[in-house]
Amino acid sequence: MRKRSNARVMWELARFVSPFSPWVCLAVACGVAGFCCATAIPVIAAGAAVRAAAVGSLFELAPVAGLLAALAVARGVLHFIEQRCNHYIAFRLLAHIRSLVFGKLRELAPAKLSGADRGSLISTVTSDVELLEVYFAHTVSPVCIAVLMAAIMAIYLGCIHPALAAVALLGYAVVGIAVPVAVSRASGADGRASRDQAAGLSGFVLDGLRGLSEVLQFGAGQRRLAELDRLSGELVDTQGRLRGVAGQGQTFTSGIIMVVSVAQMLLALSLSANGEVDGTGCVLATVATFSSFGPFVALANLGSTLQGTLAAGNRVLDILEEEPQVEDVSEDGVRISKFTGAAAEGVSFSYGTGATAEGGDADALDAAPEKILDDVSIEVEPGQIVAIQGRSGSGKSTLCRLLMRFWDVDEGRVSISGTDVRAITTGSLRDMEAFVEQDTHLFHDSIRYNLLLAKPDATDAELEAACRAASVHDFIMSLSDGYDTMVGELGDTLSGGERQRLGLARAFLHDAQLLLLDEPTSNLDALNEAQVLRSLDEQRGKRAVVLISHRPSTSAIADKTYSMDSGRVS
Question: Would you say residue 1 lies in a domain?
Fold first, then answer.
């Protein structure tokens, strides 16, 4: 995480608010007018009571009753408009920022996100973004309102006596500045720990759900539950301390308001005794001071959440300002429409920090970057089926990822149709290629939706043809809802072979001219393997296929075979 001061975080977040300046101005105007009404109600009532006492008649109160009622209604209406504007700004901005975060994550994937803490990412795109609502709805305009109200009250009390204005301003500063800063500092460590603990808890639960079958199989349920209780207990304890600090802040705020109000009353009585302030001014100054702390109390209440909010903002800014390891090529790049061959020429590559090596081995991150490919050269001609063989960890899958330009090579050159992939527009490259990895990801939606990701406008006939080619159509039709059958999250309701065949169908539907298949038959039985291989054999001459496999039966259909060992081609 980058080191930013709280002031820097607030400034950078404030830039998001600028397009909503008219709404902020309206919220501030309504807020100031509303607090003026709230403060005026007891002041006008006190002034009327003083006059009634002076003339000895309660009829002096009658004329102001309607005014007080109107001010009360106006206060409610103005407060509603202020809150409506603030929350309109906040929720529009939250939606915008969440969209920016997801867009940035798309830019960073996969190179910068491989091996990332998924629990932390989930917390950032959910709770961290939600916490920014405190800043946008309850900090920006309330600060402006408090500053303007302090100026208005200073002018009003200054007209009675400058010393009264000074005491009030001191009270406002303590309640609106000193208290939230002190509470924020007191809760700082726990505020940061609370989010980290929540992220850790989210990651633990996510891992538990994904590995539930293994937990049950090895009887680890009680141990996982004990760890869950421990993590939950730590989070509850931390949040309890935060609530305690917030309660102390509220108590201190109430005490300060009482002390300042009493001090104002004693000062007013002293000034009245010296003839510097009349009796009416003495009463009005005391009542006005006591009733004018509303906007500053709103700032004081931010103290317990402000540190966490700014920390959340810092994490969101970290993502938004992160530079992708592989930059997308815009439409100004080279567009390719016909596949005339693919080649890796003297390619060397190492996964850097933050990347996960072939097979998702995050343990590789603990050591210094290791060279995965060393001076590798292969060639794929149009319509050819090319097999790449080698033991696990030899760099076969990495080579496919470089052809997809998920990462850029350290040395050498990867080209498609004679053009370096670093110069080809990203959209054109994605249209030209389809990559099926060993683990097929399926979304928690229908089979149809999962397949149409590859070609949203595909017809039913195209969908069926792709599924028949992947030997999965008959299986789909055996389900109760056919292509509209819902698959569980991560495809857990399907077997590994069924998910793999759906991944193949998705690749066939994409109709790419270069098909990259990483162990496409590893989860298939002999019968389904034969059907898939027959479908791949039918692709010969229609599209180029790069086939990674350990099985001799799978590689047997290849026109050309490369063997890889320790990152080199032999």
Answer: no
